[in-house]
Amino acid sequence: MAHKIVFASLTRQCLFSTLQSSTICSSQFLPEIKQKRTIVDKHLFKLPEDYPEPWPYKEKPFPARLCPFDPGFARRHENSKLIVVEGNIGSGKSEFASQLADALGFYHMPSFSMNEILIDRYGNDMRKFHHLFPKRFRVPDEIMFYKDPASDQTAVMQNTIYQCRFDQYLNALAHILNTGQGVVLERSLYSDFVFVNAMREKDWISPEFFKYYHFMRKISLQQIPFYPHLIIYLDVPISKSLENIKQRGDPYEIAAVDEKYLMTIKESYKDLIKELKRHSYILTYDWTQPEYMDIVLDDIFKLKMDNIQWHSAGDVLATWTVLARSDTEHNRHRYFCTYKIPLFIKAFADLTELDTEVSELYIYPPDGMHFRRVMMHEVLKAFHTYGYIKGKDPIAGWKYSDVPLVVPEGWYEYWWKEHWYNSMHFSDTFLDPYGKYYDPDYLHH
User: Fold this and answer.
1) Do 342 and 224 meet the contact criterion of CB atoms below 8 Å apart?
2) Which positions carry the signal peptide feature in this UniProt record (predicted)?
3) Which of 45, 128, 251, 317 could be stapled to 40 by a disulfide with Cβ–Cβ 3.0 to 4.6 Å?
4) Which of 351, 376, 410 is the last residue of a domain?
5) Is residue 14 part of a domain?
6) Do 284 and 178 sit in the same domain of this protein?
7) 3-state secondary structure 63-105
């Protein structure tokens, strides 16, 4: 093991030194790296002088009208790759993913957390208003879940998490397609089912929600255009996961997460690897004792991640070859991954009738109307929706009927942060546009 670490490290150091000190070697090596289309050490990586500027997609979302004209494919290079880091609870994914992103010069996306959607742009924390919301709208965070994992709200939370992972995965693709920078993502929507399997094994969710979830997963994955280039799975014994969880010191997590829960997750990951090995490269490491990053980097650099030659790796990475057809094709996918709404609607809109058959997800109509009135009178203290509140937003004070389904900014991180309220609000305005029937004592009736 030691000699492998030393060899991997010295090889990269010597190659880097050679390229820095010799223009002859540089002209010989850099074209070869470019041709291989594999991930390159950030110290060896160099963009051409005519490389187009990254598109500021969050401030200036890419418009569809530019699809035939913008040189989108020219932004792609050897390191325009998506790496997903997977592993059980307490496996050390977060630290590993952060270090890997830094070593490669990639953008790091931590695993989705409910905190990302429970606090709005104005600083309102939805959890502080739970006592005013009907139960169905008291969406829990991870700490609340661990306190009462058998609650009906567990299904609500997990349903929300999956759909947010859908958005987050598109966010990762949008970053790559707009800037060219690679992304290291912790967990993804592909692996989310491992937790649902474990929750069902513990009887924390109903059989109806379990069936609904897997149907939702099947339908929604059809809207994802690209698989990860590489999946890195950190394998640790159950005993090690439990040890790491205890070291984190959360008493509710320690009480809820037991050997049975972790074992179901571990076994489900085996199914995931079987599912994805046809489409993505898979690297698995025994992370009982974390290895040196040099070993992992050496394994990554050996992979031939050619997005241009469709025959280079069979079905592995095949979904990415479509981008090489033309700038128009590249930018078409770029537009949908950045705008997200059409893909989100295709993935989840047809499920609205099915979720009425799942007791945990069903919304009693009067509860929905009361929730909207609470949002107007207690949370936002305004009749307008996110992005249109007078005095707080650039686009403010529109007439109520003029408020569209979307937030005014073209870019949003997660539908379930604010976008969903704008959509719900718009559809109910004809019933009670100004919330004049708000009843503060509704929950006590």
Assistant:
1) no
2) none
3) 45
4) 351
5) no
6) yes
7) CHHHCCCCCCHHHCCCCCCEEEEEECCCCCHHHHHHHHHHHHC
d(CA 384, CA 405): 12
Distance CA 185, CA 182 (A): 10
In this structure, which amino acid lies at residue 323? L
- Per-residue confidence in pLDDT tens, the chain, 445 aa: 444 444 344 444 444 443 333 333 333 333 333 334 689 888 888 888 888 899 999 998 888 787 878 887 788 889 999 999 999 999 999 999 999 999 999 999 999 999 999 999 999 999 999 999 999 999 999 999 999 999 999 999 999 999 999 999 999 999 999 999 999 999 999 999 999 999 999 999 999 999 999 999 999 999 999 999 999 999 999 999 999 999 999 999 999 999 999 999 999 999 999 999 999 999 999 999 888 899 999 999 999 887 555 555 567 888 888 887 778 888 899 999 999 999 999 999 888 778 788 999 999 989 999 999 999 999 999 888 888 887 777 665 554 444 455 778 889 999 999 988 877 765 556 677 778 889 999 998 7
Domain boundary among 296, 327, 351: 351
Whole-angstrom distance, CA of residue 365 vs CA of residue 273: 41
Alpha-carbon distance of 225 to 346, in angstroms, equals 13
Show the tokens assigned to 120: 């709005």
Taking a C-beta distance cutoff of 8 angstroms, is the pair 276, 227 a contact?
Answer: yes
The answer to the question of residue 434 being in a domain is yes
Largest CA distance in the chain: 82
Three-state DSSP state, 380: coil
